[in-house]
What we know:
mainly alpha
Amino acid sequence: MEPISPLEQALHAARALILADLIAGDVAEADVVSLVEDSVAQRRWWVEQWPDGARYVAGLVAQDVQDALLERYGRWPLCPVCGHGDPHALDVEPELGPDPHWVCSKAGVKVAPVGALGEATGGEPLS
């Protein structure tokens, strides 16, 4: 058995992190999981072209899925920090960098690392 390449490790890790956040938000339906798979497939090509980008892939997949969900279903994940005003989605920061976090831009706070939304909300759904 051959070892898993760093590229595949990064892609599998990104998939797992985003799936964990979708599960925490109670939105991990089959069609939504397909959006994750589509993003991972597209990012595989991207990282093959730029191997140094492997450490950025989790944040990029999170943004891809967030954008796809916005087009089909609406904002995700909704901010659990702001209890007033219009509901708004969290952002992924940095947009292109390692160690991506879900951030409430309105309140200016880090809510959770990508993959840890469930921990930030005590396991409560975010959607």
